[in-house]
Design a protein that fits this description.
The protein is of the alpha/beta class and 601 residues long. Helix content is 40%, strand content 19%. It has a six-stranded antiparallel sheet with strand order 5-4-9-8-7-6, with helices on both faces. It is rod-shaped, with a radius of gyration of 47 Å. Mean pLDDT is 79; it is low at 1-27, 443-453 and 593-601. The modification 4-aspartylphosphate is found at residue 516.
Length: 601
């Protein structure tokens, strides 16, 4: 049988001394490992100088003996060439592996560590072999329930893992698995991955979620004690705090979208030039910068270099990059949030992700604040309505009685007439004061949901007299018409109505008079003819139940100037009442332009 020598793991085949003579024995003498039969050695060696092994797989276990100088492997016990080449390549791969790798003994001591692991823990110059893995890593803190994944792997014979945090603030994911099939295992192979960025991202994401929950987290006591403006300022302070301290954004601008006009109203600006903060921007993709584009498209925009971006309009003079995210709730754009930096490409995709997440929380916070404001408006409006409803009818009674008493004194006692006129004025002021208080208490317009505040501007401040024997009809007139800003007064019949119209004067004249066709004294047509002696034309609307008109009041009224559309059939809907009132107002000279002019004056 032909024998040959072969190197294994960079160990010399035989001693570097004179190969013509056997190695010396005794203390301090070098020895040789022989894998195979002793007779396969090319020279004669004393048996005591040779350590004979059956397999090359056990060589590494013996190389820790400092007296071993070389290894001889018989050809028939050499690994296959491909296996040998694989072992060499595996060694190179482990050495240059992009993650840390190490071999540990049963006492967690490092037997070998690759370059990456040694570089991470400053062991490039010093040899970590012999140190425990904990000493090599600088005695890190172990996170989680498993206080020693290496002990777990040795004990169970299964893979185990853990997360280590070093004093420098780095996080490492460590996995340990037994080597070989021995039970219990004697060695562990470990891999170490740097997960610092991943952990920090998770912590930042959790902090953003906490911050989002706290944005509008107002306790009942705070809601009770704080006004709307104070809540808005608190929300702005929280947003500013989290954007600066949590997301590290220094230049910030938030704008809210006015749905009706498309105007982007400035809400918050930090580090923005005043001229830029006051700039008028609209939700339009052209001429309104990146903010206008984001608001109109509902998409985020990451600008790496503002000089090469045609959409960009600077918020500060030295801006070089920006990040703009729309505030969206239920697929509706509420506004935009924009941050800028003096550095080129200062913002990453991660920044975009974090800002989009926080933008959702801001949208929810704004919606919560809006709901609180709406709830306050609704509560205040209901309170005012309740007060007004309780006062309106008694005040009307005062007006009716006062006007009738004044009729008796006209021409006889000017002093008494003046006193009664003051009573009338005060009674009317009571109702108007309640309405004004309600408007001041409610930051929202007191109109039904879904109706634009300016949709019925023609009705605002118009004086309407309702004449009907049914108290329910008179109460409904107050409730339905006053929500649109009308000033409503009522009378039970024609006897009260005629003097109220006669004594109204120019200051309190009625813009519309609504009357039932059947009154206690006489018909609605007869009332119209008596009023025609006082005012001409009469802005009259006649009501009838289910078209019932035994005296042909409506037909006669139409022949004497009643507007063709000035009719209501009970029971009527609110929209029918509003349409007929608007028709009469327009027919007798009131226009939306007049309403707008009077409002501006």
């Amino acid at each position: 049988m032909t024998q040959s020598t072969s190197s294994f793991d960079a160990v010399n085949e035989i001693s570097q001394g004179d190969q013509s003579r056997p190695a010396e024995t005794g203390a301090g003498k070098k020895r040789l490992i022989c894998v195979g039969e002793l007779s396969s050695l090319p020279r004669d060696y004393v048996e005591d100088d040779v350590l004979v092994l059956d397999s090359s797989a056990t060589v590494l276990d013996q190389l820790s003996d400092q007296s071993i100088e070389g290894v001889w492997i018989a050809r028939d016990l050499l690994p296959e060439l491909g296996e040998l080449r694989g072992l060499c390549q595996s060694g190179l791969m482990l050495r240059d592996f992009p993650e840390g790798a190490a071999l540990l003994d049963q006492k967690n001591r490092v037997l070998w560590a690759n370059r990456r692991l040694r570089r991470w823990f400053d062991k490039v110059e010093s040899d970590p072999v012999g140190d425990t893995i904990y000493e090599m890593m600088g005695n890190p803190e172990i996170l989680g329930s498993d206080l020693c994944p290496f002990h777990t792997a040795f004990t169970t014979g299964e893979e185990s893992s853990g997360t280590f945090q070093t004093e420098s603030g780095h996080y490492y994911q460590v996995r340990a698995a037994p080597v070989g099939d021995q039970s219990p295992p004697t060695q562990l192979v470990i891999t170490v991955g740097d997960i610092t960025e991943e952990i920090l991202q998770q912590q930042k994401l959790a902090a953003i979620h906490r911050a989002g929950r706290e944005l509008a987290d107002l306790r009942p006591s705070e809601i009770f004690q704080m006004g709307v403006d104070e809540r808005i300022e608190l929300l702005k302070d929280n947003i500013r705090h989290y954007l600066q301290d949590l997301l590290n954004f220094d230049v910030i601008e938030i704008r809210l979208l006015e749905q009706a006009t498309g105007y982007l109203l400035p809400l918050l600006s930090v580090g923005i030039d005043q001229e830029a903060a006051d700039r008028q921007l609209y939700a339009h993709p052209h001429g309104n910068g990146i903010t206008g584009y984001a608001a109109s498209s509902g998409t985020s925009y990451l600008c790496y270099d503002v000089i090469n971006d045609p959409l960009f309009i600077p918020g500060v003079a030295n801006s070089r990059s920006s990040l703009t995210v729309p505030l969206i709730l239920n697929d509706q754009v509420l506004g935009t949030i924009n941050v800028e930096s003096p550095q080129i490409a200062a913002f990453t995709e991660s920044d975009l992700q974090f800002l989009e997440i926080f933008a959702r929380d801001i949208s929810y916070a704004l919606n919560t604040l809006e709901l609180l404001v709406a709830q306050k408006a609704d509560t205040a409006q209901q309170s005012c309505n309740a007060i007004h409803s309780a006062v309106a009818m008694p005040v009307d009674e005062i007006l009716n009685d006062a006007v009738n008493v004044m009729e008796d004194y006209i021409g006889h006692s000017p002093e008494m007439v003046d006193r009664i006129r003051r009573i009338l004025k005060n009674a009317r002021d009571i109702k108007q004061t309640i309405q004004q208080i309600g408007q001041r208490m409610t930051p929202l317009e007191a109109v039904p949901p879904g109706i634009s505040p300016n949709e019925h501007a023609l009705l605002r401040d118009k004086r309407i007299l309702v004449v009907d024997e049914d108290a329910t009809v008179r109460e409904d007139a107050h409730r339905l018409l006053e929500r649109y800003g009308c000033i409503v007064e009522t009378a039970r019949g024609a006897v009260q109505a005629v003097p109220m119209v006669r004594d109204a004067g120019d200051e309190n004249k009625y813009d519309v008079i609504i009357s039932d066709i059947k009154l206690p004294e006489y018909s609605g047509f007869q009332l119209m003819m008596r009023l025609k002696e006082l005012i001409d034309p009469v802005p009259m609307i006649l009501m009838t139940g289910f078209g019932y008109d035994p005296g042909h009041s409506i037909v006669n009224a139409l022949q004497n100037g009643l507007h063709p559309k000035a009719r209501l059939y009970k029971p009527f809907r609110l929209d029918q009442l509003i349409d007929v009132v608007k028709t009469v107002l327009e027919a007798y000279g009131a226009t939306p332009e007049d309403a707008d002019d009077s409002e501006s004056n």
